[in-house]
Amino acid sequence: DFTHIKFDISDEIATITLFRPEARNALSPEMRDDLRTALKVVKEQAGAEIKALILTGAGGAFCAGGDIKGMGESVKQSPLEIRKQFMLRIHDLHPIMFAMRRMPKPIIASCQGAAAGAGVSMALACDLVIASEDAFFTLAYCKIGTSPDGSSSFHLPRTVGIKKAMEIALLGDRFDAQTAIDMGMINFVVKTEELEAETLKLASRLASGPTHVYGNTKALFYRSLESEFESQLQAEAEYFADCASRADFREGVTAFIEKRQPQFTGK
């Protein structure tokens, strides 16, 4: 049972809904625990029946970031205690980021309303991002006197470039979905009333695709951010050969020769 998320599986698509609408889905300790468990289910326990994952928020917001109200008591302690507490708190978020990065199936962030602080980090850690016209983004860490976490310091400069990342982080300004798409932070902007339907359409398209191929593609692209050229080409060869040995490659090649649409099974 989950306390601060909702978890649903339907038609080979899992949906994790951050569920603290009264706090615009700020990341409580319980929510982090729930997320770790749900991501493990998607990857392992229900892996065969899940081919795509949607991450979204309840109540018209994606995620307002860390639980700042919950930090109020922490900052009254000694500097040493504060340091220890927040080292633990931030490290507590890392398994979620690792799980998202290593998930062998595509993850779609579906954003409406606020994505702030760690909410931006969560969206950046997803493979695709679709947002409603009323969505807005702000890294905002500087507004509460701290530097970024949740892997945004890794993803943001690689997504928008170092100068734009500095602007976003140092000024902490709020920007809309169109600005986010222009910077390459998100993939699609849709009408607010169409967000759920368009997200499901995108997830269904991915769920009908070659799931193992998507997993290998994710692994290749993410390792490329840190790889040397030669090792990346070696990885390409290994992943291609792995895909070629599977049923979906046989189906894809056969369908191409027969001039029909392939019917992938994800295997």
Short summary:
The protein is an alpha/beta fold.
Structure description:
It contains 11 helices and 9 strands. It is α/β, with parallel strands linked by helices. Helix 1 (29-45) links the parallel strand 2 and strand 3. The mean pLDDT is 95.
Main attributes?
three-stranded mixed β-sheet, 9 strands, alpha/beta, 11 helices, 267 residues, 49% helix
Structural class: alpha/beta
Percent of residues in helical segments?
40-55%
Largest sheet: 6 strands, mixed
- Rg is 19 Å
In N-to-C order, the SSE pattern is EEHEHHEEHEEHHEHEHHHH
Given as residue ranges, the uncertain stretches (5+ residues, pLDDT < 50) are none
Number of helices: 11
Q: Average pLDDT value?
A: 95
Q: Spatial order of the strands in the main sheet?
A: 1-2-3-4-6-9
Q: Per the principal axes of the C-alpha atoms, what is the gross shape? A: globular
Distance between the termini: 30 Å
| Beta-strand proportion | 5-15%
Tally of DSSP β-strands: 9
Layout of secondary structure:
Blueprint: E1 5-10, E2 13-18, H1 29-45, E3 52-57, H2 68-71, H3 79-102, E4 107-111, E5 114-116, H4 118-125, E6 128-132, E7 136-138, H5 152-160, H6 162-171, E8 175-176, H7 177-182, E9 188-190, H8 195-207, H9 211-224, H10 229-244, H11 247-257
